[in-house]
Amino acid sequence: MADPLLQGAYPTKGLYQALAIAAMCLQEDATMRPAISDVVTALEYLMVAGGGAADDEPAPYPNQQQQQI
User: Fold this and answer.
1) Cα 27 to Cα 23: distance, rounded to the nearest angstrom
2) Which Gene Ontology CC terms are recorded (predicted)?
3) Would you give the end-to-end CA distance of the chain in angstroms?
4) Which of 8, 42, 45, 69 could pair covalently with 59 via S-S, beta carbons 3.0-4.6 A apart?
5) Is 2 part of a structural domain of the chain?
6) What is the rounded CA–CA span in Å between residue 31 and residue 12?
7) Number of domains in the chain
8) In angstroms, rounded to a whole number, what is the distance separating the alpha carbons of residues 13 and 8?
9) Is residue 4 included in any domain, yes or no?
10) How far is the CA of 24 from the CAs of 5, 10, 42, 51, 67, in angstroms?
11) Does the residue 42 lie in any domain?
């Protein structure tokens, strides 16, 4: 689901949380969908929180891997 140009350099937990928010917005029954203000609040929280746990580090860019060798 993520842009391949990111090459894994994103917190996977944050991606899954953003996808869960998007899935709630796709409920067929409109009464089951969250209010847009709730969606904005949830996405803002993900942005501020970094979208993942402290131990959920993004994968290094390829050039960083090469420098470590």
Assistant:
1) 7
2) membrane
3) 30
4) 8
5) no
6) 29
7) 1
8) 12
9) no
10) 27, 22, 12, 18, 42
11) yes
Residue 22 sits in which domain range? 9-68
- In degrees and rounded to multiples of 5, residue 29 shows phi and psi of -80, 115
59 burial (CB, 10 Å; 0-12 / 13-18 / 19+) is middle
For the entire predicted model, the pTM comes to 0.65
Query: 31-63 pLDDT, tens per residue?
Result: 999 999 999 999 999 999 875 544 455 444 444
Cβ neighbours, 10 Å, residue 52: 18
- Exposure string for 9-30, b = 16+ CB within 10 A, e = fewer: ebbebbbebbeebeeeeeeeee
- Tell me if 59 sits within 8 A of 8, measured CB to CB: yes
